Structures are given as C-alpha cells and as structure tokens.
Amino acid sequence: MENIDEKVLQALKEASVDGKLSCGQAWALAEKLQVPRKVIGEAADRLKIKIKECQLGCF
After folding, report:
1. How far apart are the C-alpha atoms of 48 and 32, rounded to whole Å?
2. Is the dihedral of CA 21, 24, 27, 28 positive or negative?
3. 49: Cβ contacts below 8 Å, ≥ 6 apart
4. DSSP string spanning 20-51?
5. Quick one: which of 1, 3, 5, 48 has the most CB atoms within 10 Å?
6. Per-residue pLDDT at 59
7. Does pLDDT of 25 surpass 50?
8. Quick one: pLDDT band at residue 53, thresholds 50, 70, 90?
9. Residues 23, 53 contacting (CB under 8 angstroms)
10. How many angstroms separate the CA atoms of 3 and 6, rounded?
11. Which residues, 6+ apart, have CB-to-CB distance to 45 below 8 Å?
C-alpha cells in the first residue's frame, strides 16, 4: 500500500459517518482533494471505513 497523505486520511475521517461513506461521497472527495479514486479506496481500507452504495459494485 502506498504512502497516503495525512490530509487525505483526515478528510476521509471527517467525511465518514459511523465508519461508512457512500461511493458518491468518496468520488467527490477524490475530486476535491485532486487524488485518484484508488487513493481514497486505499485510505478507506487503512482506516477501516466501509464504502457503501457503490456505483460500480466494487465495494
């Protein structure tokens, strides 16, 4: 797993509710932070945040 910027980890923690985040929110966060969606997914895995309502059925 690559090194993930602390700013990304913190933003993900703040955006999640009860350890969950919708796929749409994750995509929007990636765009806002100007990072690939894959980085958001890896950060969510690291933080044990579940991605729900996946638009592609990946999570």
Report:
1. 21
2. negative
3. 12, 13, 16, 19, 20, 21, 43
4. EEEHHHHHHHHHHHT--HHHHHHHHHHHTPEE
5. 5
6. 47
7. yes
8. confident
9. yes
10. 9
11. 1
Which residues have a Cβ under 8 Å from the Cβ of 25 and sit 6 or more positions away?
A: 15
- Residue 40 contacts residue 12 (beta carbons within 8 Å): yes
Q: What is the pTM of this model?
A: 0.83
**Which helix (H) or strand (E) is 52 found in, with range?**
strand 50-52
- Identify the CA nearest to 35 among candidates 3, 18, 19, 56: 3
What is the C-alpha separation between 45 and 39, in angstroms, rounded?
Answer: 10
